[in-house]
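Lab meeting, item 3. Inverse folding demo.
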C-alpha cells in the first residue's frame, strides 16, 4: 500500500510563497508528477527499436550491419519549423487500432502502417540582417595571388593554428556582445521556468527572440499583456525579480573574489568596438516600456553602511549575506496620489497592536512609528484583519504570538462596543466567517507554550464575555436566580454530524470546538504543558463558556478523563500558604485559583446532583473548609467569596450538609464580626458581597437564623438613613431577608428609604437601549449586557434596586403583609413608574437581565390582587394594562407567571358584564345574551392558557403580541388541514370577537395591518362567518377597525405568520366566490385592498382572474364603511385595468342594480379615461360608438364624475 504523504493541491487563493512551498514539498517527497514531459525523438527511437526487434524476432536472424543501417535510416526524421508537435507519441496505440484491410483508394494496394507522423515541412529562410559578414576587398597583385596579410592578434602558442586563434577571438567578442545586448539576452538560464526541460525551452525562446526585430517583440509583448491576467503578469515579474536579485548578489560576490586575466581584458577591449544593435533599437523606441523578460534588477537599494560595519565587527548571525528583499523595507515609501475617501465611503480598517482602530492617514505620526511598510497600502498605518490572519500562520513564533495577541485585543474592544456601527461587518462576525475559530484550534495544538498562551487568550476573548459574566455574578444570590443556557437558534439542518467542521462552525461554534476534542487538549495543556497563569485562567474561563452551551456539554465536560481531577489537584490545593507568601505569582500550580472555584460552581449549577456527587467524591469540601479561614490580604477576598458561593450551591443540592456542623463555630464568629464591624453606609462592594455569601451559607443552619435577624434589624435601620443606595447593599439586605423568619421581616420598612427614587432611570423597559445583535455571530450567542456603543444596561448599574424590590414584594406576598404592600403601591414614585410603562413601548424585553424588572412587575400585579379593594380605580386600571402587556413580554420559561397574567387580564370583574351587555344588545344576535356573558366570564382565560408552552426558551416570548387572535389562527389552520369546525370553534371565535369589542385595550398597541389580517382569517374558517352571531360581531369588529384606520393600512409590510398578502387576498377571492352568498360583511372586507391608495396588483387580480365574483358583491353604497372617494381617486392610470373595466361593463357582468359599488368604480375610471386626448382614448371612443348597448356607450362617452 502506498504510504506516501498526500500533498495539498494548489487553490486559487494561494499566494506565491505557498506555491513555492508546495513545490519544495513535492520535490522533497520525490513523487512522480501527475503529468510528464516526453522527449518525442527519444520515444520515437525506442519505438522504432522495439518495432525492429519485433520484426527480427519473428523473421530470420539479421546481421548487425543491416540492423544499424535500418536504425540510421529510421533516425532521419525531418521536423517542421513551426511550433506544432514533432512526432505523435502514441504510435503503439495507433498501430494496435489500425485496420490492416484498408487500401489506397487510387492504386488499390495495401497501405503500410506509418511508423511516425511528420509535421509540415517548411523551407527554412535565412535573414541576412541577422548575420555579420566581414567584407574585405581582395586586391590581386600582378602575380595573380592575394596579398599576404599579417594578423594583429597572434599568440606564441604553437598548439593552435592561426585560423583557430582568429576563431576564438571572434567567439569571445560575440559572447561579450551578447552580454551587452541588454534585457533580451542577458543570461543562459531561465528564471521563470524550472524542471529538466527548462534550459532547452529557454534556448529555444532566445533563438526565436534573436530572429525577431524589436518591433515584433514589442507587438508580441502587447499581445501577451492583453491576453494574460494582470495577476499572472505580476506573479511572473515578482518571481523574476526575486531570482535576479539572488543571482546578482552571487555574481557580484564571485566577481569581487576572482581575478580577471589578460585574455578577458583584451576581450573587453574588443567588445568596445562592437556596436550594440539592441541599444540602438531601444533608443528608437524609448517611448515604449521594455519587456520584463530576463531583466536584471539594477536599482538595488544600498544597505546602511554603519549597520553592516557594526554587524561585521560584532559577528551578528546571518548578517554576512546581503538580502535584497529585506533591504527594500528600509526604503522610503513612494508618494501616492490617492486621496482620502469620502466621509460616507468605506475603506479597509487597520489596527495597531493594542487593537485600536487607526485613522485612514495621520500625518502627525512618522512612518517609522506608525506600523507602516506592510504589503498593501504601505502609506497607511496599522494592519488589517486579513494581514493579521496571514501573520498568525507564520513560521516565526514571535510573529504568530504578536498576530494572535493583536487579534485578541481587537475582539475585546469590539465586544465592548468600541466599533458598533463603525465597522461592517463587526470584527467578531468577520473573523467567524473566515473560520478564525478553527485557526485558533489548530494553533492550540502547537508545542510552544508562548503560542499556546497567545491562542488561549484569543480563544477566550472570542468565546467568553467578561462583562456578561461579571453581571451574572452580581445577580447570584437573589431570589429565583438561574443560569442561562446560551444555545444557538434552530436551523434547518437535521443532523449536524453530516456537516464538515467549517460548516458546523458557522452554525454552532461550541459544537464545532467539542468535535475537535478541545476538552482533551485543554486537559493535556493544564496537566503536562503547565502554561503561565494567564493561560490557565483563560483555559478555565473557556471551560465556563462551554458549560453554558447546553446540558449535553456539561455531561461531556464531567466525563472528560482527568479534566476535573487535574483542575482540583493543581488549582484547588488544600493549603493557601502559597497565596499569602508572594505578592506576584508567576506559577499558579499549587495555588488556589478563583477561576477554578467559579468553574466548579457554574458547572454545579448546570449539572445538578450528578456533578455535586462527583465533586463530593473528589473531596472538594476539604478544600472549601480550608479556604474559609484564608487570610492573604485583598487578593483573598474574591477567593473567599467564590468559595462561599460554591459551598452554598453544594448545600442547595443536599450535599456537604455535614460540613455545617463542623463549621458552625466559624460561621458564628464571622456573623459576630459582621454585627460589630459591617455598616452598610461605609461598606465596600466586595465586603457586601462577602457578607451576602456568608449569610447564604449560615442560613442553612436553623440555630443561626436568630443571629441573622439581628443583622437584618441593624441594616434595615441603616437603610433608612442611606442616601446612596447601591446594588451590593440592597443585595445584602435581600439575602438577609430570605434567611429570616416572619417576625423579623416586619421590622423592615422600605417605604421611607431611597430605593424607589431611581426606578425610571434604572429601568430596562423604559430605556432607549437596544441589543447589539450585529456585533456577535449567531453561532456564538451571548447575553449582550453592553448595548450599542458599549452602554451598560440600566438594570445592572450600581444604582439599580430592581432585583431587591422584586425580592421584597414576593416576600410580602408570601407572608400576606397587606399593609406593607398597600404602602408600596401607593408610593408616588411607583405610580409614575407604572404610568410611564403603560404609555411607552418597552425596550430590551428579550434581554436576560430584564427578567429582574419583569419579575418586579409580576410581583406588583400579584400584590394588587391582594389589595384591590384598597386601591383606587385609576391605579388598578394602570396595573391591569401592565398585566396585559406582560402576557406577551414574559419569557417562555416562565409559564406559571404567564397564566397568572392571563387570569388577571381576563378576570370576571374586568370584563364588566354591564358593558358587554350594552355592546351586544345593539346587535341582532340569535344567541342568548346571558350565555355569551357566561362564556366570557368562565372560559375565556382557559381558552388562552392552552397556548402557553410549558418548556420554552428564555430568549423567546411565551405569547405573541397578537395573542388575542391565537384561537382564530388555530381554527384557520385546522380548516386548511381539511378538518371540520364544531361548536367549540364557534364559541372560541365568539369569545375573541367579544373581547375585540369589549376590551379594545388588548389590541390598541397592535398595528392595523395585523388586526385586519387576523380578522380576515375568520372569513376563511369554512362557513362560520355566516352564522348570525358571528356575522354580526365580525361585521361590527371590522367596521370599528376600518372606520378610523383605513388610511393606516399598508399591505406591503411583512406580517408575522403571513407569507404575503397577495396569497391571502387570493384565498379571500376564492372563498368568497364559493361560500359567501354575497355576505355584506365579507363584501366590505373584500373591497378594502382594491382602493386606489393600494397597489394596482390587487385590482388587477380581482378584475381579471376573479372577475366572476364581482356579480355577487351586492353591498349597497350606503353600507360601505370606507368612503367611495377612496375607490374613485386618484384616477386609474393602468391601461390594462381600464380595458378590463370597459370589457366587464360591455359584457354585462356587473350592473348597477345588483352590484352598485363595482359598477360605479368601473364606470368612473372608464369614463374619465375616455375624456383624454391621447390616441388610445380616441380609438376607444371610436369603438364604443359602434357597440350595441347605446345607453352604456352614452354613459361612458358623456360621463360626469360625482361631487364630494
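The presenter then showed the designed sequence:
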Amino acid at each position: 500500500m502506498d504510504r506516501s504523504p498526500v500533498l495539498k493541491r494548489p487553490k486559487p487563493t494561494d499566494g506565491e510563497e505557498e506555491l513555492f512551498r508546495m513545490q519544495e514539498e513535492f520535490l522533497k517527497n520525490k513523487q512522480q508528477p501527475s503529468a510528464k514531459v516526453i522527449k518525442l525523438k527519444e520515444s520515437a527511437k525506442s519505438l522504432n527499436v522495439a518495432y525492429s526487434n519485433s520484426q527480427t524476432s519473428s523473421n530470420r536472424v539479421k546481421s548487425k550491419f543491416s540492423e544499424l543501417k535500418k536504425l540510421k535510416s529510421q533516425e532521419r526524421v525531418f521536423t517542421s519549423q513551426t511550433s506544432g508537435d514533432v512526432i505523435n507519441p502514441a504510435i503503439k496505440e495507433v498501430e494496435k487500432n489500425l485496420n490492416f484491410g484498408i487500401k489506397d483508394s487510387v492504386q488499390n494496394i495495401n497501405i503500410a502502417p506509418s511508423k511516425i507522423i511528420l509535421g509540415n515541412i517548411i523551407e527554412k529562410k535565412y535573414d541576412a540582417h541577422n548575420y555579420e559578414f566581414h567584407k574585405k576587398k581582395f586586391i590581386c597583385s600582378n602575380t595573380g595571388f592575394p596579398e599576404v596579410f599579417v594578423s594583429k592578434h597572434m599568440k606564441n602558442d604553437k598548439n593552435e593554428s592561426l585560423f583557430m586563434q582568429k576563431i576564438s577571438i571572434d567567439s569571445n567578442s560575440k559572447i561579450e556582445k551578447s552580454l551587452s545586448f541588454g534585457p533580451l539576452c542577458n543570461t543562459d538560464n531561465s528564471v521563470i521556468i524550472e524542471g529538466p526541460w527548462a534550459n532547452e525551452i529557454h534556448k529555444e525562446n532566445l533563438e526565436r527572440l534573436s530572429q525577431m526585430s524589436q518591433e515584433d517583440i514589442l507587438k508580441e509583448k502587447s499581445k501577451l499583456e492583453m491576453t494574460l491576467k494582470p495577476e499572472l503578469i505580476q506573479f511572473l515579474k515578482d518571481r523574476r525579480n526575486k531570482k535576479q536579485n539572488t543571482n546578482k548578489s552571487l555574481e557580484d560576490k564571485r566577481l569581487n573574489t576572482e581575478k580577471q586575466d589578460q585574455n578577458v581584458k583584451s576581450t573587453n577591449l574588443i567588445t568596445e568596438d562592437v556596436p550594440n544593435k539592441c541599444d540602438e533599437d531601444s533608443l528608437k523606441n524609448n517611448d515604449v516600456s521594455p519587456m520584463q523578460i530576463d531583466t536584471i534588477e539594477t536599482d538595488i537599494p544600498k544597505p546602511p553602511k554603519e549597520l553592516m560595519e557594526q554587524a561585521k565587527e560584532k559577528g551578528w548571525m546571518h548578517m554576512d549575506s546581503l538580502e535584497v528583499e529585506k533591504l527594500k523595507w528600509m526604503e522610503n515609501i513612494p508618494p501616492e496620489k490617492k486621496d482620502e475617501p469620502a466621509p460616507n465611503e468605506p475603506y479597509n480598517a487597520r489596527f495597531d497592536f493594542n487593537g485600536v482602530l487607526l485613522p485612514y492617514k495621520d500625518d502627525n505620526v512618522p512612518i517609522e512609528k506608525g506600523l507602516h511598510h506592510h504589503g498593501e497600502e504601505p502609506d497607511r498605518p496599522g494592519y488589517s484583519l486579513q494581514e493579521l490572519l496571514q501573520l498568525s500562520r507564520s513560521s516565526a513564533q514571535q510573529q504568530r504570538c504578536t498576530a494572535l495577541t493583536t487579534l485578541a485585543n481587537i475582539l475585546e474592544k469590539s465586544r465592548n462596543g468600541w466599533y458598533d456601527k463603525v465597522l461592517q461587518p463587526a470584527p467578531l462576525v468577520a473573523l467567524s466567517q473566515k473560520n478564525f475559530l478553527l485557526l485558533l484550534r489548530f494553533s492550540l495544538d502547537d508545542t510552544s507554550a508562548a503560542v499556546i498562551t497567545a491562542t488561549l487568550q484569543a480563544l477566550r476573548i472570542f468565546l467568553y464575555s467578561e462583562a456578561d459574566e461579571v453581571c451574572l455574578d452580581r445577580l447570584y444570590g437573589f431570589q429565583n436566580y438561574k443560569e442561562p443556557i446560551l444555545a444557538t437558534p434552530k436551523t434547518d439542518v437535521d443532523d449536524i454530524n453530516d456537516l464538515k467542521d467549517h460548516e458546523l462552525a458557522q452554525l454552532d461554534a461550541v459544537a464545532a470546538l467539542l468535535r475537535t476534542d478541545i476538552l482533551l487538549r485543554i486537559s493535556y495543556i493544564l496537566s503536562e504543558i503547565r502554561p503561565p497563569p494567564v493561560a490557565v485562567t483563560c483555559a478555565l474561563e473557556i471551560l465556563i463558556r462551554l458549560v453554558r452551551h447546553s446540558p449535553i456539554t456539561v455531561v461531556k465536560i464531567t466525563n472528560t478523563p482527568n479534566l476535573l481531577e487535574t483542575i482540583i489537584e493543581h488549582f484547588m490545593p488544600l493549603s493557601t500558604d502559597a497565596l499569602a507568601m508572594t505578592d506576584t505569582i508567576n506559577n499558579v500550580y499549587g495555588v488556589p485559583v478563583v477561576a477554578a472555584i467559579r468553574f466548579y460552581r457554574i458547572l454545579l449549577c448546570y449539572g445538578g446532583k450528578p456533578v455535586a456527587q462527583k465533586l463530593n467524591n473528589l473531596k472538594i469540601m476539604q478544600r472549601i473548609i480550608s479556604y474559609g479561614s484564608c487570610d492573604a490580604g485583598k487578593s483573598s477576598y474574591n477567593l473567599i467569596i467564590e468559595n462561599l458561593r460554591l459551598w452554598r450551591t453544594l448545600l442547595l443540592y443536599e450535599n456537604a450538609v455535614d460540613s455545617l456542623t463542623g463549621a458552625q463555630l466559624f460561621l458564628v464568629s464571622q456573623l459576630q464580626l459582621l454585627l460589630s464591624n459591617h455598616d452598610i453606609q461605609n461598606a465596600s462592594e466586595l465586603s457586601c458581597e462577602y457578607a451576602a455569601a456568608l449569610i447564604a451559607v449560615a442560613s442553612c443552619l436553623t440555630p443561626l437564623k436568630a443571629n441573622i435577624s439581628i443583622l437584618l434589624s441593624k441594616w434595615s435601620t441603616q437603610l433608612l438613613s442611606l442616601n446612596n443606595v447601591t446594588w451590593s447593599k440592597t443585595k445584602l439586605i435581600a439575602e438577609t431577608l430570605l434567611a429570616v423568619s416572619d417576625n423579623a421581616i416586619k421590622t423592615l420598612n422600605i417605604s421611607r428609604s431611597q430605593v424607589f427614587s431611581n426606578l425610571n432611570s434604572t429601568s430596562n423597559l423604559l430605556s432607549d437601549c437596544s441589543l447589539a445583535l450585529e456585533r456577535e455571530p449567531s453561532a456564538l450567542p451571548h447575553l449582550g449586557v453592553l448595548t450599542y456603543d458599549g452602554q451598560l444596561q440600566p438594570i445592572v448599574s450600581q444604582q439599580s434596586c430592581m432585583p431587591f424590590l422584586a425580592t421584597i414584594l414576593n416576600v410580602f406576598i408570601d407572608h400576606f403583609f397587606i399593609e406593607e404592600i398597600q404602602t408600596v403601591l401607593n408610593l408616588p414614585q411607583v405610580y409614575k413608574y407604572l404610568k410611564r410603562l403603560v404609555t411607552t413601548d418597552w425596550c430590551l424585553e428579550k434581554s436576560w437581565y430584564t427578567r429582574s424588572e419583569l419579575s418586579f412587575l409580576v410581583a406588583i400585579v400579584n400584590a394588587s390582587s391582594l389589595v384591590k379593594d384598597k386601591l383606587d380605580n385609576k391605579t388598578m386600571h394602570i396595573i391591569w394594562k401592565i398585566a396585559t402587556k406582560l402576557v406577551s413580554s414574559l419569557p417562555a420559561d416562565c409559564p406559571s407567571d404567564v397564566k397568572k397574567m392571563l387570569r388577571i387580564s381576563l378576570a370576571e370583574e374586568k370584563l364588566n358584564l354591564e358593558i358587554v351587555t350594552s355592546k351586544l344588545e345593539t346587535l341582532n344576535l340569535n344567541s342568548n345574551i346571558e350565555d355569551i356573558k357566561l362564556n366570557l366570564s368562565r372560559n375565556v382565560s382557559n381558552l388562552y392558557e392552552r397556548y402557553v408552552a410549558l418548556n420554552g426558551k428564555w430568549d423567546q416570548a411565551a405569547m405573541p403580541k397578537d395573542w388575542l387572535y391565537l384561537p382564530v389562527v388555530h381554527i384557520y389552520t385546522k380548516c386548511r388541514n381539511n378538518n371540520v369546525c364544531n361548536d367549540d370553534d364557534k364559541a372560541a371565535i365568539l369569545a375573541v370577537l367579544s373581547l375585540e369589542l369589549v376590551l379594545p385595550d388588548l389590541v390598541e398597541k397592535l398595528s392595523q395591518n395585523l388586526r385586519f389580517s387576523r380578522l380576515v382569517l375568520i372569513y376563511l374558517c369554512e362557513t362560520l362567518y355566516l352564522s348570525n352571531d358571528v356575522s354580526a360581531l365580525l361585521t361590527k369588529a371590522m367596521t370599528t377597525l376600518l372606520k378610523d384606520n383605513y388610511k393606516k393600512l399598508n399591505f406591503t409590510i411583512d406580517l408575522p405568520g403571513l407569507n404575503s398578502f397577495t396569497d391571502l387576498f387570493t384565498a379571500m377571492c376564492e372563498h368568497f366566490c364559493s361560500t359567501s352568498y354575497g355576505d355584506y360583511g365579507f363584501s366590505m372586507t373584500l373591497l378594502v385592498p382594491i382602493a386606489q391608495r393600494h397597489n394596482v396588483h390587487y385590482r388587477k387580480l380581482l378584475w381579471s382572474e376573479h372577475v366572476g365574483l364581482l356579480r355577487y358583491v351586492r353591498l349597497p353604497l350606503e353600507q360601505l364603511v370606507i368612503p367611495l372617494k377612496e375607490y374613485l381617486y386618484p384616477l386609474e392610470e393602468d391601461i390594462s385595468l381600464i380595458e378590463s373595466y370597459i370589457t366587464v361593463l360591455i359584457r354585462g357582468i356587473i350592473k348597477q342594480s345588483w352590484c352598485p359599488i363595482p359598477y360605479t368604480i368601473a364606470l368612473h375610471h372608464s369614463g374619465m379615461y375616455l375624456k383624454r386626448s391621447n390616441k388610445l382614448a380616441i380609438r376607444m371612443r371610436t369603438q364604443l360608438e359602434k357597440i350595441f348597448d347605446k345607453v352604456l356607450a352614452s354613459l361612458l362617452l358623456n360621463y360626469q364624475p360625482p361631487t364630494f
